Amino acid sequence: MTTSSIQHIAVVGAGLMGHGIALELAAYGYDITLHDRDQSQLERARGGITEGLARLVDIGRITAKEAAGAPARIAMGTDLRSAVAGADLVIEAVSENIEVKRTVFRDIDAWAPRHAIFASNTSTFMPSLLAAATTRPERVLVAHYFNPPYLLPLVELVRGDLTNDETVATMRALYEGIGKSPAVVQREAPGFVGNRLQMALLREALAIVDAGIASPRDVDTIIKTSFGRRLAVAGVFEVFEAAGWDLTLAVADQLFPVIERSTEPPLSLREKVARGELGLKTGKGFYDWTPEEAAALRGRIGNALAAIARLSDA
Fold it and tell me: pTM surpassing 0.85?
């Protein structure tokens, strides 16, 4: 199967990730069926699609004409069987529950064409667990987007034990064709690559705060105004290639012995969750948030990602 064989794509799950995935693919000319069991979720997705397309126009990724034509290429429905019946590719973006996902994969395996590729947007589960629910494990992989999926270029393509080279090559070419930056994870591992790196940073940040070395606000300031800016334009290996591995080894000799190595999340994090201090969604986490402040943070992140996208495309 080649990328030219993919004409119709079904996206299963119309939540934050699902409708974001659908709108970008539609903007680049693919016919999409967006499925959700909840009709009200599909109605909410319409507004999100309009906003996402406007953002893509704003950063110059697509034209106003392309944005105007995209919604007509997105059919919506609550019947999974009809949604996947003519699909060349099915992208699953339902809730992060393994039994729910395995049920979806069993159903789409029964109802989708035999040539169809199945991809999951899971950030947690191994592709082999999902492939085992199908009769086509060679055509199953993870396509892990980061949020917001239409602004962040990365898609981690995670192959399972039985995923074949043709499936990986087809998906890589598809994403390259719409301006994404697919990266192939050759061997499945918990957290894949992106989330392992994020969680390693978070573990050390929590340890620093718990030890009284610095406050959450000052930790964030240090990240945002130093190496965080470099990481927007150069990866960790590129950064340390520039610094020199001799210097890097000297620093590693000093710091690796004292960097956090615990295998359990800290008690402070568990206690914060137990108290319901979940961040923006509850108005309190490591910071206190008014609705206006929460909206401002979301806007700042979205605007910054858009600005980076403009620079990257320039």
Answer: yes
